[in-house]
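## retry 2 of 3
previous attempt timed out at serialization; input unchanged, resubmitting
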Amino acid sequence: MLSATHPDGPDMSSSTVSIGVKWGKETYNVDVDLTLPGAALKAQLFSLTSVPIDRIKVTGLKGGKALADDTDLAAAGLEDLARRGKKLMMFGSTAVVEAPKEDVKFVEDLPENEREAATMENYSPGLTNLGNTCYMNSVLQCLFGAKELRDALQAYVPGRDQHSGTAALTTALRELFADMKSARDTVMPVRFLNVLRQLYPQFAQHGPQGIPMQQDAEECWSAVMHTIASECPDEAKRLFGIGLRRELKCAQTGETRVEDSTEYTFKCNITIEVNHVSEGFKIALNDTRELRSEALGADAVFEGNSRISKLPEYLTTQLVRFYYKADIRAKAKILRAVTFPITLDVYEFCSDELKAELEPARKLKLQREDEEALKRMNEKKAALEDKKEGDVSKMEVDAAASADATTSTQDVATTSSEADPLEGKRFTGFYDLVGVLTHRGRSADSGHYVSWVKQDDGSWTEFDDEKPIPRKEEEVLSLKGGGDFQMCYLMQYKARMI
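## retry succeeded, writing output
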């Protein structure tokens, strides 16, 4: 008898039931989460039997009904069946490879756009939508794009409290990323979703008809990041932790307050004046709050701002597009277009101490860029001279061009040939865009989320749940907002080290 039980998961006894499922000669014990719809059970059975979801038919439910995608598992009589030792019956065959009905087309014979879509070797697979879980899938795809996080999770071993919810979710994330790395087809994040909903019940909410509710992708991202930070604090801070120093002053008394904190998103507030993310960052860093004044013995207004005191390898930025609107009792969305760069420079938002640390690396970066520009100019000049007719012989022109190029190459070699233990580890303050999570719709708790991830070969892929779609950089930059189409909500930047 085979089993779908995961012994290292959290205690789900309050919301799950173990039920037998008979398929042909095989019988499976399946832990069914009663808070999920029938589509989730079908996904579990697919992972066990490889029977395509659209071919799975399950009988034996209360009232003689067959299992449907929207079946309310809590009302399907599964607890009673398990108590009486009864089993569900599953029917369906695995997919059979049929001979092609049309002539086989080779990738090389396709148009360029179709050829790109057919070649998915460099792309991670899509993730199955298990019932309004596009918010979670988009977060997972962006995080999967951070190779250093995958490496850290691969080395993760639960600590003393290995049966805690945070340990279970971190383990589920590690195993999901391992599946995504090796899979050549769509991956079903069933276990990760089950543990996420057990640990954070807000993601297990259902609507009036029993269908799982859409959730806010930023809240899901924060929950996952909080979990990683709990289990892998050093790695989380190094990879995603943004050190902020807040300096506040009370104009009435002259008192000052200095506070240090670690945040995992760099906020961009949106107002009528904000057209670019840098403008929104400045607004978000300004701070006014009421604090206890020792001089007055009462609360007083303190004003000031925050500055970045420590940079992470991955900078996650959030466009604060949603706010609670009291009259409709829901989160409303700011549709305003806000442009964002492919390369982000955060130097102006850093503390004076951090700016001083960044200066040497920034100067070295500019120096190397100047050297490369000079080298390209000399090579272009030499090529043009080869085509000219004049009094100077071709051999002399070649010699001069070679000397220029050699000088430029020697300059570069002089800069980079010395052994430097910090090579590739110095922060410059520059970040390159590697992921964008977008939302379409008018509310964070409705609409649709997708992610856009930069691949190792420099290309971009849009992940719309199960479907990976090749995209171009200009398409990513068009996600600035201003309408009812997909618009940027979270962005992930990777530090450019030198």
